Every structure is written in C-alpha cells, then in structure tokens.
Amino acid sequence: MLVELEVSTVFVADRQSYRVSAREEHPVKAIGWAARDESGVLSPFKFSRRATGIKDVTFKVLYCGICHTDLHFIKNDWGMSKYPLVPGHEAVGIVTEVGSKVQKFKVGDKVGVGCMVGACHSCNNCARNLENYCPKMLLTYNSTYYDGTPTYGGYSDIMVANEHFVIRWPDNLPLDCDGKLVLVGAPGKPLELPVFPLLSGRKIVAGSAIGGIKETQDMIDLVAKYKITADVEVIPIDYVNRAMERLAKSDVKYRFVIDIGKTLKDA
C-alpha cells in the first residue's frame, strides 16, 4: 500500500520549480516481486511508480537478469537492505512513454536500465562520466529518491527512469540474453598478494565499482557489433525463489533471466 508522505517536495526541472505530494508524483500502479525480510523470500508486491517526468523514459519490462547482488540484498548480507525490497538491476524492455524534453528515445525503442537511476550531475565524477562514484548516486533498488520514496528494481512490470540512465538496446541484440558482460566477480575473502612481484614488474591491482553510463552503453554497442551473446536459463517469475537457492549453492550453469513480460501477472 502506498503511504503518502506528510510533507510535499519541491522538484526542479528546466529551472522551474513545482510542488507536488509524493502521492501525486507516484500515481502509476506497478506490480513486482519483493522480499519483506532477511529470509529473502520473494512474493508478489503492489506498489507505485512516479509519473513520466519531462526527462523520463517509461518502459514495459520484458526481461530481467538475476545478479548475485540481488541475492545479497534480499538476504541483507551487507547489513543495508531496506524492506520491502524489489531487486533487479538488469532490466530490459520496450519504451511506452517519454517525457516532453526527452531527446534520445521514443516510444517503441528497446532499452535497458542497469545499476543506477540517479546522480547529482555536478560533481567531478559525474563530469567524467563516472556517475557510479557520485556521492549522491541512486541505486536502481534499495536507495531513496530525493522525495523520500524508495527505488524499486526490475523484478516488476514497469520502470521509470531519467533518460540519462537509460541504455539504448541495439536492434540486433535479443532482449533475453544480453543483460551484462561479466568480466570478474568480487572475492568474498580478503585478497592476499605478494608485494615484490608487483614492485619488480611495475604491476597494478585495481578495482572498479560497476561502470558509468557511457561505459555501459559502449559495452552494449561493442557486444552488438561483434554479435557477442550470453548463454542463459530463462525462468518464470514464480521460479525466482528456487533460482535464488540454486544461485546460493552455485548450481547455475548459465545466467538466470526472468521472463517478466510473459510470466509476471497481477494477482
């Protein structure tokens, strides 16, 4: 059930301010699957998305990949989960509506949303297309919008995001098997390295927290150009809890992808 915030919020768009309540700003009914507590069990969940803003893209979610990060969040493994939690940051689908100031997308386009849906656009990191390091970066789920409402992820039928954080999906890529290019994971234990081989070979060990929007778009364009695809196991939404169990046991040969478009139904 949507709970209206007691205070109204000022939003700024194209240098013009307007005041709306949280209920007025989030009138779009949505359905998804959410975890309610640290058990991590996912079940049907009804909530609200914001209306399409002047720079927003609204799209119908057709597929959403399952990332191990989703498992960590629904189980509160990192001690930062906020429930109810709708996971999913590998969502792709078809644009159904665009705001009046949107320039990059139109209705009918294939698009995707990754790990981020917001940033300040004014810090040094944002200026270098590294929104993933912005101090005010908003995660696609388990973050809080500037009006105080939670972000919900792609295990849902519809998503709304600022066009800056929407990825264009090349026409020659199928929507169900090109969610992410996975290069390497993060080790669960501290990494121990001998120092002298690094010094003598002038070697560098570095890490990166996901990637910026430009990097992500470049990656998708690259896999489209060279026809790089992923082997996936497409599952219905009602198999998602079993999929999480298998993921926890490393009993997964291919990437899990949820067929949102065909299997997520309003209860």
Automatic annotation (TrEMBL):
Pfam families, sorted: ADH_N
- InterPro entries cross-referenced by the UniProt entry: ADH-like_N, ADH_Zn_CS, CAD-like, GroES-like_sf, NAD(P)-bd_dom_sf
Could you tell me the keywords of this UniProt record? Metal-binding, Oxidoreductase, Zinc
Q: In what residue span(s) does the Alcohol dehydrogenase-like N-terminal domain sit?
A: 55-171
Among PROSITE patterns, the record links this protein to:
ADH_ZINC
At the top level, the lineage of the source is Eukaryota
Q: Does the keyword Zinc apply?
A: yes
User: What cofactor does this chain's UniProt record say it requires?
Assistant: Zn(2+)
Q: Which residues form a coiled coil?
A: none
GO molecular function of the protein, one example? zinc ion binding
Q: Decide whether keyword Transmembrane is in the record.
A: no
Q: Which PANTHER family match?
A: ALDEHYDE REDUCTASE
This protein is called Alcohol dehydrogenase-like N-terminal domain-containing protein
Q: Which organism does this sequence originate in?
A: Escallonia herrerae
